[in-house]
């Protein structure tokens, strides 16, 4: 089969009005006057089962390059353990013949330039081209037009030698001019990445550096005194010092300063570079390994991501547009990799925003992970205190269109890629989605924990002892972007299927179209070997387009231009990959699309060009010329606006407690699970007041509302005596039927013990309030049973229909004995005193497990309130109310098969069919845990080492066996006997769980399992049986906790999920990739049970903190529900709903009987004029540790309302079409 692939050069004036036909024959194309056509006849194999990428023998192609490592002395030999042993690759058409040429670098033997002769034939023209760098230790390399003559120059970095700049002479030769241009820096140069950061029309360079090891002893001079040292300025590139919050100082090896070189060509007419680092406010002395220009915020000014190694922080610099940059790493990113070695950007989900992947060294296999998981004790300070946190895994930063990125590598399948150097995004299969490629391996495996242990035990101080470490040869990896198959970014490992899984040690890599067939070929630089050359065999049925840009007012290569085809977008900059750079052409995969309706190019100058009806399978050149327009994009109004002022001085403050000292193998901390929130009108002034639970060591706070959304100073005095208790669930209720609201607070956490009093729940009775709004609270210990359970949620309902409110209190955990828990309790209100009647009325509650949420509602519409519980390492549980007794019906309801780490519950009619559905928040799919029915996550609890104390063992199931989640070091620290049984990390990493703990002991242990971690909707079939539906990807991006339904504009019953979990054990790290998820009914769905995500740039809601409870509350009294989110160890976040140009929703208030004046437990059926019915329930206790105001909001004015009251009575109420604001419905027994 022969393919015809054309090259077409287009000036916009001639081309923008031309309609191209679909044919791929050049003679049938309209011909502008500037057209130049080259044809490449490419023979394609007919075997569809062949790999996508065809590995070619470089020697047969004329590429005689071999990477050389031949250190000439001990100093160079010591560099084996650094990235300077690698080599780079770059591609570009230096001679203007339309074919992409290749440059390869290496530590010894000099770089080599290969001219592309066509048909995958190359000629080594290094000497012929005038390049003489055989004695140079060459590192990063790029082809770039420095002097705007539309010819590619060559910039080569070096280690401990001057960087080289070869200016293209236009005749196939180069002249070295680095010193005269001011670019001949000598040091630990990694690479220079190029971009027009000031948009003046020429290209500037950012040089990232690493550490230049001294060749002799350096006596560092310190300033200050012990505990307050700083490093003298002349030694900043040798040593750094970090002061921890504890006051302790840590000293570490420093790297060299990076440099920003500003091109002065446009300003002065002379090609010179000026060091603009200081003026640009760029700083840091780190071990740089990569630098990436990208336009993170879409303002047309290139921003920077600098990838730094070791404990050095990555740096994300936003370009301010005035020649300066601001480091926003801590504000913009949830976390970064620990040892970042590469970064790449692309619009992965085709939303018009650039995302970025930063790579680390996390193993892709259980064995590799456990071999690299040594003791973390030495770096505990780093894991516990660095901000943002650094984790030993890749990080995928998903652009939200706001100042905060989400981190979703675990959900995307890209968190682990082995010891990765170059990371690249490119649409290799031309399906319209950019795929990922990584090079892997290293000269020695310095993460081999057995080698490290032997070296430590030997006492060998010889720095060359590292030569004896095992060589680390790993497979390179390719991941196919499968975004089109789901609403989340997801990649699938296709390395073997695509033929690129060669095993070795690979560093630099570059993509480019080497044979002009329009797809992307690949060259990889391998340590001490010839390069790998891959020819892309993508069939012509997957169409493609290649674009070359020629700037005029903008820089000559169009760096920084945005090219759009449909919802595909490319931001043009080829300088990506370790020591490497791609061909600068812009490539689009287009699937089966024959004709492109429109191509839009936004140049850095602000000009916009549009091409219409362009045929695919060709190359076009677009020149920035002729008439064009400048587009200014106005900001879009968000649905919500931040309004944090009322809570700025209110803070939930944790007192540090080491959960892991009690249970070393605990998966997550249990001492930081609050705060809860309870909302009610405690002083009868018509305004909603707030009780915010306190942490252990901090009293809870009552915020009494005043006008205009403000609050009086927090009242804490009544609660100070109980400050040592950890507040969990809390709610207001009239326990004694005296007409005012009392306060019940659950005590939880693990700081207390069963013998102490801090676990005793509390009832504060309201004895009235002063004129200033100060409530007089009295602690009523004698009105509660004397129970010392570590509790979680609390929810109220009239269980026995006697007119007052009863309570269910969920047991969270047994302190020091996770995953065990105390019994959950059913407390029946007997005239204001609560009795524990669990054994009598609901014995199954005693074994409900680690309960995280509880909600009452009438599931089967029989007039009695039923109970649903969420639990950790357990299912959602349903208890049907049979005349005041609760009978578990979990299995019959279809809920037993989905044990999860459930957190929050909401009862609401999601599909508007007149019965109650539920929303259940879970840990999502963006963690290291990915269980399913066939591969559950398990936990065992037993005295495995016969020490007299039970330990936790986490395990994951594979198709063949069970494997331990934790590694040898932490496991043997908890159970020292394991250190004797498994003397090496290799033996532990090779062992199945049964080999480590024995089948007999595992069988005798307490066992729990989880198979489902997805936040979900549970749709009621009308008979109390539920179908579980996964909520959109945004809701899965982090652990979900609180959840609320609310009316957002005219979108109907929308949902908001509070996200993130900050307190996992060190190896796991924070699970904080989310920012909160607003979900609205899909306009295209037949029912409202299907939801779509509203991204933060549209919603205006951004909560990157450790969010827990959330309540929908009308803060400013405008009739619209706002959102208040309580965060652990921080201040609540508040977002006001921006009123649309339509009436506010109808608020329905119920007036119940004494003892339950708000009619908690009532259900309101709204019947619309078209007969549609939606059911609403009044709850006291819902979501996660939340009580919201006792109102129901209706998005539309119904025809009538049917109320089922808590005592089982029903009433029907006509609704006038003219009603606005609110209406109150009274119980039938009230006058």
Task: Describe the structure in brief.
The chain is mainly beta. The protein is built from 19 helices and 86 strands. Helix content is 8%, strand content 37%.
Mean pLDDT: 92
Shape: globular
Q: In the CATH hierarchy, what is the class of the largest domain?
A: Mainly Beta
The name of the CATH topology of the largest domain is Methylamine Dehydrogenase, Chain H
Into which percentage range does the β-strand content fall? 35-45%
Could you characterize what this model shows?
This protein is mainly beta. It folds into three domains: 55-212 and 255-601, 7 Propeller (Methylamine Dehydrogenase, Chain H); 641-929 and 1011-1212, YVTN repeat-like/Quinoprotein amine dehydrogenase (Methylamine Dehydrogenase, Chain H), CATH 2.130.10.10; 937-1010, no CATH class. 8% of the residues lie in helices and 37% in strands. It has 19 helices and 86 strands. Strands 8, 9, 10, 11, 12, 13, 18 and 19 form an eight-stranded antiparallel β-sheet that branches. β43 (595-602) and β44 (607-615) form a beta hairpin. The longest helix is centred in the middle third of the chain and has 10 residues, at 449-458. Residues 1-47 have low confidence and may be disordered.
């Amino acid at each position: 089969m022969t393919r015809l692939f054309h090259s077409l050069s287009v000036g916009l004036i001639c081309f923008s009005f031309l309609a191209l036909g679909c044919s791929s024959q050049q003679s049938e194309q309209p011909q502008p006057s500037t057209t130049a056509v080259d044809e490449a006849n490419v023979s394609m194999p007919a075997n569809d089962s062949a790999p996508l990428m065809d590995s070619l023998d470089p020697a047969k192609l004329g590429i005689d390059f071999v990477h050389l490592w031949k250190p000439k002395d001990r100093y160079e030999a010591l560099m084996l353990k650094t990235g300077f042993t690698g080599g780079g690759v770059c591609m570009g058409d230096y001679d203007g013949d339309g074919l992409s040429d290749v440059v390869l670098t290496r530590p010894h033997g000099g770089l080599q330039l290969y001219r592309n002769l066509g048909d995958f034939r190359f000629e080594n023209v290094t000497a012929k081209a005038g390049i003489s760098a055989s004695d140079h230790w060459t590192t990063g390399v790029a082809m770039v037009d420095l002097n705007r003559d539309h010819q590619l120059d060559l910039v080569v970095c070096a280690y401990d030698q001057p960087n080289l700049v070869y200016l293209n002479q236009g005749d196939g030769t180069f002249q070295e001019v680095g010193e005269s241009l001011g670019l001949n820096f000598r040091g630990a140069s990694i690479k220079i990445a190029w971009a027009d950061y000031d948009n003046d029309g020429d290209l500037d360079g950012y040089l990232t550096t690493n550490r230049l090891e001294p060749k002799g002893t350096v006596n560092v001079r310190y300033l200050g005194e012990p505990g307050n040292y700083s490093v003298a300025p002349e030694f900043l590139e040798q040593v750094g010092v970090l002061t921890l919050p504890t006051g302790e100082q840590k000293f570490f090896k420093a790297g060299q300063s990076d440099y920003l070189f500003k091109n002065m060509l446009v300003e002065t007419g002379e090609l010179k570079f000026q060091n603009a680092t200081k003026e640009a406010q760029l700083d840091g002395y780190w071990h740089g390994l990569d630098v990436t220009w990208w336009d993170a915020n879409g303002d047309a000014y290139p921003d920077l991501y600098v990838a730094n190694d070791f404990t050095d922080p990555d740096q994300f610099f936003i370009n301010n547009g005035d020649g300066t940059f601001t480091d926003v790493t801590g504000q913009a990113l949830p976390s970064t990799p620990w040892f970042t070695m590469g970064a790449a950007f692309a619009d992965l989900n085709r939303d018009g925003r650039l995302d970025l992947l930063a790579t680390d060294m996390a193993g892709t296999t259980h064995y590799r992970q456990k071999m690299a998981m040594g003791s973390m004790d030495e770096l505990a300070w780093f894991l516990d205190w660095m901000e943002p946190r650094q984790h030993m895994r890749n990080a995928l930063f998903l652009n939200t269109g706001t100042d905060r990125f989400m981190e979703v590598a675990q959900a995307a399948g890209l968190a682990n890629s082995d010891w990765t150097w170059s990371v690249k995004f490119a649409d290799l299969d031309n399906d319209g989605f950019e795929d990922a490629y990584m090079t892997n391996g290293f000269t020695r495996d310095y993460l081999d924990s057995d080698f490290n242990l032997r070296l430590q035990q030997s006492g060998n101080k010889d720095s060359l002892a590292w030569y004896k470490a095992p060589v680390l040869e790993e497979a390179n990896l390719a991941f196919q972007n499968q975004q089109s198959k789901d609403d989340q970014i997801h990649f699938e490992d296709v390395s073997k299927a695509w033929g690129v899984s060669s095993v070795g040690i690979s560093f630099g890599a570059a993509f480019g179209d080497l044979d002009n067939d329009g797809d992307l070929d690949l060259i990889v630089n391998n340590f001490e070997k010839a390069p790998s050359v891959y020819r892309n065999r993508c069939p012509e049925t997957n169409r493609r387009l290649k674009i070359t840009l020629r700037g005029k007012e903008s820089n000559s290569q169009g760096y920084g231009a945005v090219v759009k085809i449909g919802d595909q977008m490319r931001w043009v900059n080829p300088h990506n990959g370790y020591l490497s750079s791609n061909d600068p052409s812009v490539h689009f995969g287009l699937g089966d699309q024959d004709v492109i309706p429109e191509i839009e190019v936004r140049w850095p100058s602000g000009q916009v060009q549009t091409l219409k009806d362009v045929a695919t399978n060709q190359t076009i050149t677009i020149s920035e010329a002729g008439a064009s327009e400048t587009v200014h994009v106005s900001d879009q109004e968000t649905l919500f606006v931040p309004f944090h002022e009322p809570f700025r001085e209110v803070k939930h403050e944790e007192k540090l407690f080491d959960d892991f000292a009690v249970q070393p193998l605990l998966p997550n901390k249990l001492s930081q699970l609050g705060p809860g929130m309870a909302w009610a009108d405690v002083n009868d002034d018509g305004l909603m007041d707030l009780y915010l639970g306190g942490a252990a060591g901090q009293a809870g706070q009552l915020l009494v509302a005043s006008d205009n959304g403000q609050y009086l100073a927090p009242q804490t005095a009544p609660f100070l005596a109980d400050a040592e208790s950890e507040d969990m669930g809390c709610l207001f209720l009239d326990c004694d039927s005296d007409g005012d609201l009392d306060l019940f607070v659950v005590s939880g956490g693990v700081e207390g013990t069963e013998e102490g009093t801090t676990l005793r729940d509390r009832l504060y009775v309201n004895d009235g309030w002063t004129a200033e709004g100060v409530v007089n609270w009295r602690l009523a210990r004698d009105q509660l049973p004397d129970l010392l359970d570590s509790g979680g949620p609390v929810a109220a309902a009239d269980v026995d229909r006697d007119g007052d409110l009863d309570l269910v209190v969920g047991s969270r955990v047994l302190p020091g004995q996770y995953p065990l828990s105390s019994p959950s309790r059913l407390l029946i209100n007997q005239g204001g005193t609560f009795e524990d009647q669990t054994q009598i009325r609901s014995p199954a509650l005693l074994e409900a497990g680690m309960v995280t949420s509880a909600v009452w509602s009438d599931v089967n519409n029989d007039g009695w309130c039923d109970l649903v519980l969420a639990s950790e390492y357990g299912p959602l549980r349903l208890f049907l109310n049979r005349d005041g007794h609760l009978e578990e019906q979990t299995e019959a309801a279809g809920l037993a098969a989905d044990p999860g780490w459930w957190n929050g519950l909401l009862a609401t009619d999601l599909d508007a069919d007149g019965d109650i559905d539920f929303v259940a928040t879970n840990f999502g799919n963006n963690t290291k845990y990915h269980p399913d029915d066939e591969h559950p996550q398990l936990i065992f609890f037993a005295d495995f080492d016969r020490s007299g104390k039970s330990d936790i063992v986490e395990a994951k199931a594979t198709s063949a066996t069970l494997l331990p989640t934790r590694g040898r070091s932490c496991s043997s620290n908890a159970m020292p006997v394991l250190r004797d049984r498994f003397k090496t990390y290799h033996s532990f990493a090779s062992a199945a769980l049964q080999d480590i703990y024995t089948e007999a002991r595992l069988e005798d242990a307490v066992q729990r399992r989880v198979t489902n971690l997805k936040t979900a909707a549970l749709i009621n079939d009308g008979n109390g049986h539920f179908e579980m539906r996964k909520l959109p990807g945004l809701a899965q991006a982090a652990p979900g906790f609180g959840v609320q339904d609310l009316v957002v504009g005219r979108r109907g019953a929308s949902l908001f999920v509070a996200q993130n979990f900050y307190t996992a054990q060190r190896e796991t790290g924070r699970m904080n990739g989310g920012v909160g998820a607003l979900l609205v009914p899909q306009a295209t769905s037949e029912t409202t049970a299907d939801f779509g995500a509203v991204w933060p740039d549209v919603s205006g809601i951004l909560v990157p903190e450790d969010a827990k409870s959330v309540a929908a509350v009308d803060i400013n009294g405008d009739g619209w529900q706002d959102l208040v989110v309580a965060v652990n160890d921080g201040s609540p976040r508040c977002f006001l709903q921006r009123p649309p140009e339509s009436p506010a929703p109808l608020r329905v208030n119920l007036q119940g009987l004494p003892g339950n004046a708000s009619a908690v437990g009532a259900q309101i059926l709204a019947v619309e004029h078209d007969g549609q019915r939606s059911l609403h329930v009044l709850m006291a206790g819902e979501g996660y540790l939340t009580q919201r105001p006792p109102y129901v909001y209706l998005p539309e004015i119904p025809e009538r309302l049917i109320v089922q009251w808590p005592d089982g009575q029903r009433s029907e109420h006509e609704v006038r079409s003219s009603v606005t604001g609110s209406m109150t419905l009274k119980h039938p027994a009230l006058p």
